[in-house]
Amino acid sequence: MVARPAPAPVPGALADRPVRRDGPPPATEGDVWALLSQIPDPEIPVISITDLGIVREVALDGRAVRVAITPTYSGCPATFVIAIAVEAALLDAGLTPTVTSRIDPPWTTDWLTEAAREKLRRYGIAPPATRGPEACPHCGATTVTQVSRHGSTPCKAQWRCDACAEPFDYFKCH
Ligand SMILES: [Zn+2]
């Protein structure tokens, strides 16, 4: 459960008005999934949170919707940001969301979709693999060397290609 303080009521302002939006609220769980698939991962914006595989459950009952999210790893700072983005998107869509965090079973990189892996490669990030990056995302060479265990975000490590000499990020979370 993500705790968020309720906004203070503003006298005579929007607080008591019904939610108005252009289209009808999502009517099916598929509609909700489609909406969530538009929310980017805050650390790697080329992939969505559904690409990442962290949305584990969507349950729609009228306008009430429950969404369970699994952090990519315990204490991942992006998880809170993602929960807020999900809540805001569902509120904007006219739904009443309850966003929960589900840590069991833990997220694994196997939950990344194949589409997400391809998007990562095109963005210059080597997708996760059991024994480190399988190939340079720039030239495809398989001779690669780790430069640093730490990358631009906690989920990434710095590697370099021995063939084209380009550095690249490796998505290491699992
Ligand atoms: Zn290369």
By oligomeric state, this entry counts as single chain
Could you tell me the radius of gyration in angstroms? 19 Å
Ligands bound here? zinc ion
Largest sheet: 4 strands, mixed
Global shape:
elongated
Give me the secondary-structure topology.
Layout: H1 29-36, E1 55-61, E2 64-69, H2 78-92, E3 96-101, H3 114-122, E4 125-126, E5 144-148, E6 156-161, E7 167-171
Parallel strand pairs: 2-3, 4-7
Antiparallel strand pairs: 1-2, 5-6, 6-7
Walk me through this protein's architecture.
Residues 1-27 are annotated as: Disordered. InterPro entries: Fe-S_Maturation_MIP18 (IPR052339), FSCA_dom_sf (IPR034904), MIP18-like (IPR002744), PaaD-like (IPR011883), Zn_ribbon_PaaD (IPR056572). It holds the Pfam family Zn_ribbon_PaaD. Residues 1-10 have a biased composition (Pro residues). Residues 135-172 form the PaaD zinc beta ribbon domain. The strands form 2 sheets. A 4-stranded mixed beta sheet has the order 4-7-6-5. A 3-stranded mixed beta sheet has the order 1-2-3, covered by helices on one side. It starts with 28 loop residues before the first helix and ends with a strand. The longest helix has 15 residues, at 78-92. It is built from 3 helices and 7 strands. Mean pLDDT is 84; it is low at 6-20. It has 2 domains: 25-101, 2-Layer Sandwich (GMP Synthetase, Chain A, domain 3); 112-171, no CATH class. A hairpin with a 5-residue loop joins β6 (156-161) and β7 (167-171). With 174 residues, the protein is α/β, with parallel strands linked by helices. Helix content is 18%, strand content 21%. It binds zinc ion.
